[in-house]
């Protein structure tokens, strides 16, 4: 989704802006632009398409200056083209702005501005900011921005420059902005990825806060102009973690990183056969859990429901965050809301969390990005420590989310003194080794991918705790290979999807050895009887499965509660290899964004 980078210092800002934009590329975008201030004049360049288009343009060489802002746009209001790309300007081109988020009352504001003579040239809501600031500007940019922000409904991560002022004004509401504190230079970005190469010292802006940034100092204020004391924090991620390290794509690297990322999630959290996680509030009174999330994180949440109900014995519901926030859910004081999010910035998940907080539920985050908005708004949290996830399709974050949910469920069980089979802890410690083992199926999966790369549809079927794995396998495939795929509980197939099965339909079964094994074999037979092509992911390739399956992907055996971690990995690889064989840009599939910060 849209990205912002700004620079103010003693060096030419253009290379900083271009490099910063490249670090934000993974978030997804369809146009890019920059604006630099030199000798009290603004110079700008905008392009539809990739940042490479900006770099190719000869005019970029003539753009230099010590202050600049830049933006990658993911189209919401208006198609991706140069006119709609940011930065946007006021009528006299004195002011440049870059904006992430959505102005909800932009139609009303546009009407007023147009009546007053402002000429708004783009189809975006964002351009309104430049004109409002122009309207209020009387020699003080900070004042004009704060007056503007008071009129705007909606969300913003906003950076503003004015040709008469050597400063950047940054402001945030509902869309992240982070100030990077350097040596005689300051940066501002919507994502720490764009700051890391220059500084690890950062200040996270909170909602309705403004930063007034010059090359060697900054102040943070609320919209009424009162100064706020904000702490400088340190980013723990390293530049090396953001590199591909010889892998063809970030996604493949991240799939292969899972032995390490899951190790980091469980590290230090199992000691002397006890789960050690610190939750900053009393869990004893919790009578009901609601998990909210989107996309892949929602699939982890569904697995969490099985874990929390079966291991912790606490009634648990799972809700899409986008539905939860608007359906006037019944939330009580003794309810716990768990928000799961890799990025910690997903707008719907954040809104659902706020809804729960408004109703006085306790809140807990399962988050990867340290310092992200959700991680700062929850009462307590479990960080994943999975490292940066750059590939748009979530892989290692998912297995770490499931690991964190296992830890939480066992912890809640322990808190209630319910008996615990220690074997699950033994298996949990072995998980990184088992992941290494399952990654060895990569070669075989490449061959399977070759056989099915031209399929038009796929079905993924699983049961019990592995039903959400089927959903996740289908999501991975559709988002990066553009092949239509559906996930279903295997038994549900008979109630409709079975009509789709013929010799052109590959059906992936997640079929671990457990109490439901014989049932899933019956489901396989139903598919085989209709000439469907079965790919079985299983730890017990017995003769019944061999009889019906075209391909068997053998995975290591593990405790059933942990099996979603192992079983999801071959499905990630299958999606990856099919997409790669189709020459799709796996890390940046069309229309998708890494972090969805708008509704
Ligand atoms: C799919 C994917 C998305 C995200 C979803 C939520 O591979 O990555 O479905 O899972 O947008 O994102 P987070 O977890 O950042 O809240």
UniProtKB/TrEMBL annotation:
Keyword Transferase: yes
Domain Glutamine amidotransferase type-2, first and last residues per copy: 2-216
One cellular component term from this protein's GO annotations in UniProt: cytosol
A single GO molecular function term of this UniProt record: carbohydrate derivative binding
Reaction catalysis annotation: D-fructose 6-phosphate + L-glutamine = D-glucosamine 6-phosphate + L-glutamate
Coiled-coil positions: none
Catalytic residues (UniProt): 2, 594
GO biological process: carbohydrate metabolic process; fructose 6-phosphate metabolic process; protein N-linked glycosylation; UDP-N-acetylglucosamine metabolic process
Top-level lineage group: Bacteria
UniProt KW keywords: Aminotransferase, Cytoplasm, Glutamine amidotransferase, Repeat, Transferase
InterPro entries: GATase_2_dom, GFAT, GFAT_N, GlmS/AgaS_SIS, GlmS/FrlB_SIS, Ntn_hydrolases_N, SIS_dom, SIS_dom_sf
EC number(s) per entry: 2.6.1.16
Domain SIS: 279-418, 448-589
Location in the cell: Cytoplasm
Signal peptide as annotated in the record: none
NCBIfam families given in the database record: glmS (TIGR01135), PRK00331.1 (NF001484)
Annotated function: Catalyzes the first step in hexosamine metabolism, converting fructose-6P into glucosamine-6P using glutamine as a nitrogen source.
Subunit structure as annotated in this protein's UniProt entry: Homodimer.
Protein name (database record): Glutamine--fructose-6-phosphate aminotransferase [isomerizing]
Organism: Candidatus Komeilibacteria bacterium CG11_big_fil_rev_8_21_14_0_20_36_20
